[in-house]
Amino acid sequence: MKTTIVLLGPPGAGKGTQGEKLTDEFGYVRLSTGDMLREAVRNGTELGKKAKEYMDAGALVPNDLIIGLMKEKIKEVDGGVLLDGFTRTVEQADALGEVMKVDLALNFDVPDEELISRLTQRRSCPDCNAVYHLVTKKPKQDGICDKCGGKLYQRDDDKESTVKNRLEVYHKNTQPLIDYYEKKGVLVTIPSTGAIDEIFEKVKKAIQ
Ligand code: AMP
Question: What is the pTM of this model?
Answer without folding.
Answer: 0.93
